[in-house]
Amino acid sequence: MQNQSALMSSDQLANIMFGSVFLFIGLAACAFAAIRRGGGVRLFAWLGIWSAMRGVRLLAKSPSVVAILPHWLQVCAPFVWVATMYLVLPVAVLAWLELTVGKVRPFLKTVIVGGFLIGLAGIGVFAVTGSKDRLMVYSDDLLAIAALLVLVVVVSVPRLARRFLVLPNRAVVVVGTLVFALEGLHFSLANTFHYKTTEITGSLAFAVLLFSFGYVAAQMVLANEHRLVSIDNELAIAREIQASILPGSSPAVKNLRVAAAYRPMTAVAGDFYEFVPIDANRNGFLVADVTGHGVPAALIASMVKVAMQSVISCAHDPSEVLHGLNRILCTQLRSQLVSAAYLWVDTENRKARYSAAGHPPLLLWREGKLERVESNGLLLGVFPDSDYPLFDIPIRIGDRFLLYTDGVIEPEDSDGKSFGDHRLEQVVRDNGSHAPAELLDQLLAEIHRWQPTSAAQHDDITLIVVDVV
Known about the structure:
Layout: H1 2-35, H2 41-60, H3 63-67, H4 71-97, H5 104-129, H6 136-156, H7 158-164, H8 170-192, H9 199-245, E1 256-263, E2 271-277, E3 282-290, H10 294-310, H11 318-330, E4 338-346, E5 351-357, E6 362-366, E7 369-373, E8 376-377, E9 391-394, E10 400-404, H12 420-430, H13 436-450, E11 461-468
Helix pairs in contact: 1-2, 1-9, 2-4, 2-9, 4-5, 5-6, 6-7, 6-8, 8-9, 9-10, 10-11
């Protein structure tokens, strides 16, 4: 009797000690997962829930802990113990799922679904009948053993581990899994032969497994951090390269005043613009917008830059420029397309020519009136032989041309209403007497004010203003 009392006392003390530690570790891991993102964080979350459930279950088994709880928590304690007992299996397998690939995953998902269904049924049976472990034979004795055997084999055999697991350090997980599996075997044999065991060995085995998982999760997070730093460095280089292919300054053309604004949504953008100087009186202005965002769109934008060099001989004919760009890009593009607009201005002969490919219209401010010049063909990259209509415009002193991408008109306010063509045109009207650079500053400020303060930019923005002076 004294030995049994001492054993019970040591078990309760172990439950309180290990339960408190596991609960603290679980809450800390969940908090870490909540504030971080990236590879390995989901594993931390499931490990945290798994550890917290184990800790709560151990504390709920201790009469001395339950006795100091408020009455309503004392009433809930048996339900909490049963819930953690039944649902710990699917949570544990969810943690394993983060480390697996290939054909093992469907098996584990089946265990997870089965474990949740049995767990919910077991909780329901307890609520109705008061029986705590009526369905445990299906959860612990069948599903848990089957899952553990499969995982032990996969982890232990190097060839299978390389094929089905994503592990930065396999040896640590092997040790943790084998220790946990051996303790489970010891517990099963002890129950079979009616041999009394203590909670200490089970808690120690779980602590070893938890440490091995935590070590692997930490390595995955660190590897992800290194990968993100590497990506940031590569994006910085890509940003510098993209900046180098954009015009460094406005062209020096007689009787023209030019300003441009370029605001990428991300480090690199799918918008592109180019000045095509021919001589002191003639210049072409190209604006292009690649579908999509980020690095893929930026690569296509670089291709537009290269393709433009091959059609420089027909810079005076916007229709031919777009036709040439389309012919070149059709052989290179896959799923992405490009909208473009090209304006040619000849101040010596006082004329401009314009053509576009699926692009927002050119705005012409003349003598206090705003005109929309639409001369659109298909997007670049759809058909290799697309035609692009040409629009001739006689120019006068005081004329203002505005080329832009759809990132200017698409920003939305808090009600989901777009900035739109109407507001763009109104800003142009209200700033008709301002210099090109001042108009661009005002436009960008209006777009910024239109969006909610917390809203991020959702598209690249490019603007070119050309004044005839």
